[in-house]
Amino acid sequence: MMMVTEKDSEHRTTERMDLSLQISVPGQEGTTTNISASGVYFEVVTDDVNAFSPGTSMPIEINAVTNTPGCEERNVKLKGQGFVVRSDIKDVTSQGNRLGVALEFKDKFDINVD
């Protein structure tokens, strides 16, 4: 896992971790590119670009699996609210537009372990 710190950025206040995790937003599934304590950057394929306009608030769920040696795998779900700070079209596919979306977390997340 790679840790990324951008000292030159005036806006970034927390370290990002490059992690590929499943993320769910209303009506869409995507994959995270990186995540920090304050937000997440993910990609999603959609026909509804306007659903990811800056300022849009949405519920999100991030799913991960624990992988602790000697312990059974467990599913971890992080649930909370976020708002879009930017989005850009990365590619146009036959399934729709592949968007990169930067989302800032609104509050602390609920953590559920299965």
Q: What fraction of residues sit in β-strands?
A: over 45%
The overall pLDDT, averaged over residues, is 88
**How many runs of DSSP E, i.e. beta strands?**
9
- How many individual helices? 0
Q: Indicate how many domains the architecture comprises.
A: 1
Helix content: under 10%
What's the CATH class, please? Mainly Beta
**Biggest sheet, spatial arrangement of strands:** 3-4-5-8-7-6
What Rg is obtained from the alpha carbons, in whole angstroms? 15 Å
Gross morphology is globular
Helix-strand topology string = EEEEEEEEE
* Fourth-level CATH superfamily: predicted glycosyltransferase like domains
Class based on secondary structure composition and strand pairing:
mainly beta
CATH structural fold name: Thrombin, subunit H
| CATH architecture annotation name | Beta Barrel
Determine the N-to-C terminus distance. 24 Å
> Residue ranges: pLDDT <50 for 5 or more in a row?
1-9
Major sheet size, sense and barrel closure? 6 strands, antiparallel, barrel
